[in-house]
Amino acid sequence: QKQLVESGGGLxxxxxxxxLSCAASGSIFSxxxxxxxxxxxxxxxxxxxxxxxxxxTNYADSVKGRFTISRDNAxxxxxxxxxxxxxxxxxVYYCNADVTYYSGSRxxxxxxxxxxxxxxxxx
Length: 123
Fold this sequence. Notes:
- The chain is an all-beta fold.
- It has strands at about 5, 10, 20-25, 30-40, 45-50, 55-60, 65-70, 75-80, 90-105, 105-115, 115-120.
- Strands 2, 4, 5, 6, 9, 10 and 11 form a 7-stranded mixed beta sheet that branches.
- Strand 4 (about 30-40) and strand 5 form a beta hairpin.
Protein backbone atom coordinates (compact mmCIF):
# COMPACT_ATOMS: atom_id res chain seq x y z
CA GLN A 1 0.00 0.00 0.00
CA LYS A 2 1.39 3.37 -1.01
CA GLN A 3 1.35 5.75 1.89
CA LEU A 4 3.24 8.18 4.07
CA VAL A 5 2.57 7.99 7.79
CA GLU A 6 3.57 10.69 10.25
CA SER A 7 4.08 10.13 13.95
CA GLY A 8 5.49 11.92 16.97
CA GLY A 9 3.08 14.81 17.33
CA GLY A 10 1.55 15.83 20.63
CA LEU A 11 1.48 18.46 23.34
CA UNK A 12 4.75 20.14 24.30
CA UNK A 13 5.56 23.09 26.52
CA UNK A 14 7.12 26.27 25.13
CA UNK A 15 10.86 25.88 24.91
CA UNK A 16 10.57 22.12 24.69
CA UNK A 17 11.43 19.64 21.94
CA UNK A 18 9.59 17.17 19.78
CA UNK A 19 10.66 14.79 17.01
CA LEU A 20 8.36 13.98 14.13
CA SER A 21 8.79 10.99 11.83
CA CYS A 22 7.42 10.25 8.38
CA ALA A 23 7.67 6.71 7.05
CA ALA A 24 6.95 5.75 3.46
CA SER A 25 5.65 2.27 2.76
CA GLY A 26 4.88 0.13 -0.26
CA SER A 27 7.02 -1.17 -3.11
CA ILE A 28 9.38 1.79 -3.21
CA PHE A 29 11.98 2.13 -5.93
CA SER A 30 13.28 5.54 -4.85
CA UNK A 31 12.38 8.71 -3.00
CA UNK A 32 13.62 12.04 -4.28
CA UNK A 33 12.81 15.20 -2.30
CA UNK A 34 10.98 14.98 1.01
CA UNK A 35 9.31 17.90 2.77
CA UNK A 36 7.57 18.95 5.95
CA UNK A 37 4.65 21.36 5.73
CA UNK A 38 2.46 22.76 8.47
CA UNK A 39 -0.96 24.34 8.61
CA UNK A 40 -2.21 26.38 11.55
CA UNK A 41 -5.94 27.05 12.04
CA UNK A 42 -7.17 29.68 9.61
CA UNK A 43 -3.85 29.84 7.78
CA UNK A 44 -2.48 28.47 4.55
CA UNK A 45 -0.26 25.42 4.49
CA UNK A 46 3.38 26.48 4.52
CA UNK A 47 6.63 24.72 3.73
CA UNK A 48 8.72 24.20 6.85
CA UNK A 49 11.75 22.35 5.49
CA UNK A 50 12.84 20.11 2.66
CA UNK A 51 15.63 17.62 2.03
CA UNK A 52 16.96 16.06 -1.16
CA UNK A 53 17.94 12.43 -1.55
CA UNK A 54 21.54 13.56 -1.14
CA UNK A 55 20.84 15.34 2.12
CA UNK A 56 20.76 18.99 1.05
CA THR A 57 18.34 20.96 3.19
CA ASN A 58 16.34 24.18 3.17
CA TYR A 59 14.34 25.80 5.96
CA ALA A 60 11.69 28.44 6.36
CA ASP A 61 13.10 31.53 8.07
CA SER A 62 10.73 31.02 10.98
CA VAL A 63 12.32 27.70 11.95
CA LYS A 64 15.99 28.19 11.02
CA GLY A 65 18.29 27.36 13.90
CA ARG A 66 15.52 25.55 15.80
CA PHE A 67 14.33 22.73 13.54
CA THR A 68 16.44 20.08 11.83
CA ILE A 69 15.24 17.92 8.96
CA SER A 70 16.94 14.60 8.27
CA ARG A 71 16.25 11.28 6.55
CA ASP A 72 17.26 7.66 6.64
CA ASN A 73 17.16 6.43 3.06
CA ALA A 74 17.56 2.80 4.11
CA UNK A 75 14.36 3.08 6.16
CA UNK A 76 12.50 5.37 3.75
CA UNK A 77 11.92 7.65 6.69
CA UNK A 78 12.23 11.39 7.26
CA UNK A 79 12.46 13.23 10.56
CA UNK A 80 11.90 16.72 11.91
CA UNK A 81 13.66 17.55 15.18
CA UNK A 82 11.90 20.55 16.69
CA UNK A 83 13.72 22.44 19.44
CA UNK A 84 12.90 25.64 21.32
CA UNK A 85 9.30 25.44 20.19
CA UNK A 86 6.87 28.29 20.72
CA UNK A 87 3.06 28.57 20.53
CA UNK A 88 3.51 29.89 16.98
CA UNK A 89 4.68 26.40 15.99
CA UNK A 90 1.27 24.95 16.82
CA UNK A 91 -0.13 23.37 13.66
CA VAL A 92 -0.89 20.14 11.88
CA TYR A 93 2.37 18.94 10.36
CA TYR A 94 2.27 17.07 7.06
CA CYS A 95 4.99 15.17 5.26
CA ASN A 96 5.24 15.11 1.51
CA ALA A 97 7.53 13.23 -0.83
CA ASP A 98 8.25 12.46 -4.47
CA VAL A 99 8.12 8.66 -4.48
CA THR A 100 8.72 6.23 -7.32
CA TYR A 101 6.87 2.96 -6.78
CA TYR A 102 7.33 -0.20 -8.81
CA SER A 103 5.03 -3.01 -9.75
CA GLY A 104 6.67 -5.73 -11.76
CA SER A 105 8.48 -3.90 -14.56
CA ARG A 106 6.40 -0.72 -14.18
CA UNK A 107 7.53 2.38 -12.35
CA UNK A 108 5.32 5.28 -11.33
CA UNK A 109 6.39 8.51 -9.69
CA UNK A 110 3.92 10.48 -7.64
CA UNK A 111 3.64 13.34 -5.18
CA UNK A 112 2.35 11.88 -1.90
CA UNK A 113 1.05 13.36 1.33
CA UNK A 114 0.76 11.97 4.81
CA UNK A 115 -2.40 12.32 6.89
CA UNK A 116 -0.88 14.91 9.24
CA UNK A 117 0.06 14.94 12.91
CA UNK A 118 -1.02 17.60 15.40
CA UNK A 119 1.63 19.57 17.27
CA UNK A 120 0.39 21.79 20.08
CA UNK A 121 2.75 24.07 21.99
CA UNK A 122 1.17 25.25 25.21
CA UNK A 123 1.88 25.57 28.90
